[in-house]
Write a structure and sequence with these properties.
The protein is mainly beta. About 15% of the residues lie in helices and about 45% in strands.
C-alpha cells in the first residue's frame, strides 16, 4: 500500500514539474526600462505553433488603447485582445522563429522566448541578429 501511495505522489509531483516548466500560460509583462507591470499575456499553442495574446492591460488609463501604429490588419485594433506574438516554434527549451509586435510603437521584431527558472520568461525582440535587441523578463501570472 505504501509503495502505491509513494508511486502516486511521485507521479503527481512529476506532473506538477512538467506544468511548471511549460511556457504555455499567463504571464505578467514588465517594462524593462521602468520596471512597471504592464499587462497579462497568454501564451498558447495552436497547430504546433505558439502565440501570445494580450488578455489585460494593467494600467486602467491605457486599457482601452488601440494599436494605431500597428501594420496591416492589426492597425487600429484594441491592444487588449491583440495577438502580439505569432508563429513561434518550439526549439528545445525555447521558442523561436516567430515575431513579436510592440503595440506602442507598432514595430515588429524577430523573437526568442525561453524559460528562466519555472516562473520567469525571458522574451527577446530583435532586428537582424539577436545581439541587437531588448529582453524583457515576464513573470508567471
Amino acid at each position: 500500500m505504501k509503495s502505491k501511495l509513494l508511486i502516486l505522489l511521485f507521479f503527481l509531483g512529476g506532473m506538477a514539474t512538467i506544468h511548471a516548466q511549460s511556457m504555455v500560460g499567463r504571464w505578467k509583462t514588465i517594462d524593462d526600462r521602468t520596471g512597471i507591470e504592464k499587462s497579462i499575456v497568454e501564451i498558447f499553442e495552436k497547430d504546433g505553433k505558439y502565440f501570445g495574446k494580450v488578455l489585460k492591460i494593467l494600467n486602467p488609463e491605457k486599457a482601452k488603447g488601440t494599436c494605431d501604429k500597428c501594420p496591416g490588419v492589426d492597425k487600429g485594433k484594441p491592444i487588449q485582445g491583440l495577438v502580439i506574438i505569432r508563429d513561434m516554434k518550439k526549439d528545445g527549451n525555447e521558442l523561436s522563429g516567430g515575431r513579436i509586435i510592440d503595440p506602442e510603437s507598432g514595430k515588429e521584431y524577430k523573437c526568442h522566448i525561453k524559460l528562466n527558472g519555472s516562473n520567469k520568461l525571458d522574451v527577446r525582440g530583435f532586428l537582424g541578429i539577436s545581439l541587437v535587441g531588448r529582453t524583457q523578463t515576464w513573470i508567471r501570472a
